[in-house]
Amino acid sequence: MELSNLTLLNGDIFDVNALGAIVLGSQGNALFQSALLHDFDKVILILHENGAENRLIDHMVAGEFRTQTLRVGRSMLERSIITGDNNERVTCLLEGEIIWDPKGILERLREEVIRFEQPLRERVLFLEFARFLHMHVKSKRYLQAGCYMDSYNCILVALYHWARLEVSEAGHYPMPAVWEQVKNLNNSVYKLYDELTISGETMEQRIELVQLACEFSLMSKMGDCCKWLLDLLRDRKEPCSIEELLALPGLKDVEAELPLVLRKLTSRSLVREMASWADAGGRYPIRYTL
């Protein structure tokens, strides 16, 4: 599809100052059909410099033909690639037709995801590990409080992040239909998913079984999956407080999980704690180093 066709199809929605544009349509027999296509014939993703979007979403109709247009900043799309928080954008990037890419930005991003090499792979591994750990700990706390449904929900989400972790470790970018990827890897985490959801044991027993497996996996994967964070600490000339770490690029995405990760790394002697000079209240702020 040429740029002129896109402009004619959607009136004046196209901004010639955009960095690029992708059109996503029906994917035929593809495994995963983007939810963005629900009740729409086409989805158009327009990439802008950060903060340059005037409107984030447009819905247009021409006769019986309906389109949904999304405007996304470059850093927002790059963050979605790393975090998986908006995998619909990633689906557009990977499955859509690039129709406007004068600087080759979209093509480079697509190739980076497909190749899934460092440093992208290390960042995804660390983020998924951090979220896996966080949800596992939350599940344990809910179970201790007798809140079985909340514990079940958290351990189910923990398994989801474990699944994304396993796919990443196998050298593949975790796609929206991640459980199909894990199933094809014949991985034990898929069997645990079955155990949690369809086993004849009581809910409490199922949760406890999966929690034990999660605990073992987290301990065995910690060093490799936290390499990106450990390298950040290694490159710092001085020990860092948690506030300083959260100010570093990329760590803001794990603001809720980073305290747990640091405590686990410290308990395994992969990271050292150092007490700073006492503040006015006689407290000793903790700083972290290797």
From TrEMBL:
Highest taxon of source: Bacteria
Name used for this protein in its record: Uncharacterized protein
Domain Nucleotidyltransferase-like: 32-118
InterPro entries: NT_sf, NTF-like, YgxA-like_substrate-bd
Boundaries of every YgxA-like substrate binding domain copy: 125-221
Pfam family of the protein (one): NTF-like
